[in-house]
Amino acid sequence: MKAYTKTIKGHRRPLTPLTRPTRLVIAIQYALLSLSVAGYGHAQETSLESAKKFQTSVPATEDNAESSATESSRSGEKASKEKTSPTQDATQRGETTESAKPSETVLPTLVIREKGVQEGYGVKNSMTATKTKTPIIEVPQSISVINRNELTMRGVNLNFTEALRYVPGVVADTLGFNGTGFEYVSMRGFNSLSTANFRDNLSQQGRGFFFADFITDPYSLERVDVLRGPTSVTFGRGDAGGIINRVTKLPTSTPIREVELQYGNFDRKRIAGDFGLANEDGTLMFRLVTSALDTDTQVRFPNTGGDRAQIRRFYIAPSLTWRPTDRTSVTLFGDILNNRSEAAAFYVATPEGSPTNTLLGEPNFTRYSSDQASFSYKLEHHFNDTFTVRQNFRFMSLDGRYRDINPAGFAADGRTLDRSSVATRERLDQTVLDTHVEARTRTGPLNHTVLAGIDWNRVESTLNHFIGSAPSIDIFNPVYNQPVPTPDFLFIDGNQKIDQVGFYVQDQIKFNQWVLTLSGRHDRVSSVTNVNIFDPQHNASKDSAYTGRAGLTYLFSNGIAPYFSYSQSFLPQYGIDFFNNTPFKPARASQYEVGIKYQPPGTRNLFTAALFELTKTNVLIPDPRTPLGVSQAGEIRSRGAEVEARTEIYRGMNLIGAFTYNDVKVTESATGFIGNMPVRVPNLTTSAWLDYNLGTLNVSWLKGFFIGGGVRYVGRVFNDEANTSTTPSFTLFDAMLRYDHGPWQFLINANNIFDDKYYSASTGGNFFLGTRRSVIGTLKLRF
To answer: CA-CA 20 to 30 A from 673: which of 169, 455, 550, 637?
Structure first.
């Protein structure tokens, strides 16, 4: 527990005009800000409550404001009201300071306390579901939060998908181990590779024609919010299965000095640093987060003497926060991520469909190289206790060069696999701007939190897709490092631009123990596509949609909160339908969900259970018949049940438990197979993680020690639309040992500790090998 003490000396400041940052906000979105002009007259009344919003200087994790800060603030308000001097009264009546000169009143000392790293995994609030700070039990939808403590404890620091292994409704690593960094994940039965990709409440789900996707370095994150079910009403591009919102590490008033060294099997070497500083009054704060990775992987080529695919990655992210007043905050931040990786764990199948130890890629040819960068800003201004305006902006860019090998069929001997090569040059730019006004007000017995806003999302992608020849390979006795000619035949030369503008409004209405959430949105989308293999090459389209959400929650005094909700989504889709030479149609979805949440009063423990029925139309499915590997199906229905627990069983012992049953069926399809399950969708997943702080045993030599472990089960999946081939279920075990000593922290994380060899799926003649045992040691110094 750290304490930050601030003495506020008080005389009433004379009325002043709006600050320059405030005028900038108004100039950018004057139409929206006009909604709150009516409340501006009250903005001149400065209260300690509004001061608390910025001068508490808590970390930007949405959930670190402690009750001690609130109580101190309230006691300060009470004391200031009781001890207001005649001088202050005169000033409040508008008299000049000369006439109110006699003395200067000093307000009581205001002590703000904030916690550093939160132990345990429970979180009370989230802005992901509603864009307002809302208690999780009041959100009428399933949501899970993975905080920084959990990310550290479970050793999430290679691929982002590792963070999602203990979340219900989510299947991580659906294509097995993947060193490329691509975030293969599904939610409630729907592929969410890029469609669920959000960061700091802004979409980063821009996608190229072929390989290009934005990826995430896990060390850059403060927490991860997983909101399940359709979410278009506030985000515009939320998919049917939900969204995964990555919350970035941003400046705090607490000094941060952290260095991390890591080593593990497969010669894994990683160094990372997190540094933050602030001036004395907390008005200017800076943070720098960086990491560098150099590692071999489990992907080992046979008959080569031990050649392994490698990963090289570098990340850096500076950020700066300026608080010119107690009601205004401006944050600037950017990042650069360079990723170099080689072959993924795609193993060739025999003509009969059995797995082999032969990798499809070539060690001297397969390369995934991407450079991505972004610049963002966040503006927030509190006019008073009623009106708040926010504007968030981000521009992201990705340059990618990718090379890989594709299968081209077997020769007559059944063992010689013909192959072809592919190389792409891709560019992906995404610009997102979101501006909204929040109003907290009261009408009679009803308390309202109203949100009204507009957002704009533009994605521009270009593709040069080359194909060429590659030497064949004997799948039972492969010979690698054969020369592969550089692909030089330009097969696809294309570009696509998608513009989306959305207007949304939301009202969270409280009446006694009832919470009613009503949201509505209108989107307009236009796209322009130019692809050389089409006739005509130029294709333009426009679309629009209304989406909504309605949810009702009842809050019992004992912490139980049953709820019911209906929600919709509308998702413009990237790419081309090669069967009719047109852009893919937008996907639409609707969901009914009923559930119950339980959070014992005064704790962060959270128990949730939900039943849902979800239907999505215009679904993209894997299709090897098309050059881009996907086609558009008809309709898929997903029904299921989810249960989650994030709790401290007793002092020092934390538990995460998750269970999912998912019944997913194709209900309409142009290719047939109605009534079957889609590929790579398990109907049952469950997991549990338990760790214990041995220091709570009050044994001196155990002080600082933590132990933990987890188990994950993923049910069988179908490999083909006809549901004739399956990949078996698998169960994996993880373990952790941690020791804290002063500023030092040492962790050993072991995943798949029994080194079970399993496959996550098999599609298109490839088996996707799962993640083998990894043992990683991390030494961290906080100074």
So the answer is: 169
Confidence of residue 572 (pLDDT cuts 50, 70, 90): confident
Calpha distance 349→356 (Å, rounded): 6
How buried is 483 (Cβ within 10 angstroms: 0-12 exposed, 13-18 middle, 19+ buried)?
A: exposed
Residue by residue, DSSP assigns 118-179 as PPSS---EESTTTSS-EEGGG-SS-EEEEEHHHHHHTT--S-GGGGGTT-TTEEE-TTS--T
Pick from 451, 349, 454: nearest CA to 407: 349
- Cα 324 to chain centroid, rounded: 30
Which own/partner pairs from 528-534 qualify as long-range (CB within 8 Å, at least 24 positions apart)?
528/496, 528/497, 529/494, 529/495, 529/496, 529/576, 529/583, 530/494, 530/495, 530/496, 531/492, 531/493, 531/494, 531/576, 532/490, 532/492, 532/493, 532/494, 533/491, 533/492, 534/576, 534/581
* pLDDT at position 324: 95
Distances (CA, A) of 341 to 366, 574, 775: 9, 25, 20
Q: Which of 27-31, 359-363, 481-485 has the lowest mean pLDDT?
A: 27-31
Per the CB < 8 A criterion, the answer to whether 727 and 760 are in contact is yes
pLDDT of residue 631: 73
Asked if the model's pLDDT at residue 10 lies above 60, the reply is no
State how far the Cα of 58 lies from the Cα of 65, in Å rounded to an integer.
6
Q: Please give the DSSP secondary-structure letter assigned to residue 345.
A: S
Say whether 79 sits in a helix, a strand or coil. helix
Q: Quick one: pLDDT band at residue 533, thresholds 50, 70, 90?
A: confident
262 conformational bin, left if phi > 0, alpha if psi -120 to 50, beta if neither? beta
* Long-range contacts of the stretch 442-448 (C-beta < 8 A, 24+): 445/511, 445/512, 446/509, 446/510, 446/511, 447/509, 447/510, 447/511, 448/507, 448/508, 448/509, 448/510
AA identity, residue 743: P
How far, CA to CA in Å, does 210 sit from each of 118, 402, 467, 525?
A: 41, 10, 13, 22
**pLDDT at residue 32 greater than cutoff 50:** no
CB count, 10 Å around CB of 625?
9
Cβ within 8 Å of residue 650, ≥6 positions away = none
CB atoms closer than 10 angstroms to residue 89: 12
* Cβ–Cβ < 8 Å for 678, 636: yes
Nearest to 57 by CA among 127, 10, 5: 5
Tokens linked to 112 = 């703000």
Return the axis-axis angle of helices 48-55 and 67-82, rounded to nearest 10°: 150
Chain centre to alpha carbon of residue 517: 23
Cβ pair 418, 469 in contact under 8 A: no
**pLDDT grade for 49, boundaries at 50, 70 and 90:** very low
Please report where in the chains the tokens 């490329």 appear, as a residue.
Answer: 180
Ramachandran category for residue 491: left, alpha or beta (phi over 0 → left; psi -120 to 50 → alpha):
alpha
Note the pLDDT of residue 774.
Answer: 96
What is the predicted pLDDT for the residue at 312?
96
The pLDDT value recorded for residue 578 is: 67
Distance CA 228, CA 242 (A): 4
Comparing CA positions, the residue from 4, 401, 468 lying closest to residue 212 is 401
Strand, helix or coil for residue 695: helix
Length of the chain measured in residues = 783
For residue 578, the SS3 value is: coil
Structural domains of the chain, with CATH: 247-782 (2.40.170.20)
The values of phi and psi at residue 233, to 5°, are -60, -30
The whole-number pLDDT of residue 69 equals 36
